[in-house]
Amino acid sequence: MLAALVAPAVSQQMGPQKTPLDLQYERERQDQVANERAYNDQMKRLKAQNPTSAKTDPWAGVRPANDTNAKR
After folding, report:
1. Taking the CA of residue 4 as centre, how many other CA atoms within 13 Å lie in the half-sphere pointing to its CB?
2. DSSP-derived secondary structure letter, 71
3. pLDDT tens, 58-67?
């Protein structure tokens, strides 16, 4: 009779138990791996795009039209 009462308690303690801190570390590691994978995928997509052949000047609207210093 005593064995019948103790058996369920012993069976619950069998196997590795993860602490909440271990579970948090595991989730953070999974998130980090997912973020790195998404970053690498985005970088591959950006490299695969055709680079712009014409160089653009973002300050073209600020400079005067007849700038003689730029022609040197």
Report:
1. 1
2. G
3. 888 888 777 5
**How many Å apart are CA 49 and CA 72, to the nearest integer?**
34
Q: Where are the alpha helices (DSSP H) in 1-72?
A: 2-13, 20-48
Backbone angles phi, psi at 35, to 5 degrees: -65, -40
Is the Cβ–Cβ distance between 63 and 70 less than 8 Å? Answer: yes
Q: Match 């602490």 to its residue by tokens.
A: 19
Q: Look up the pTM and report it.
A: 0.48
Contacts (Cβ under 8 Å, ≥6 apart) of 70: 63
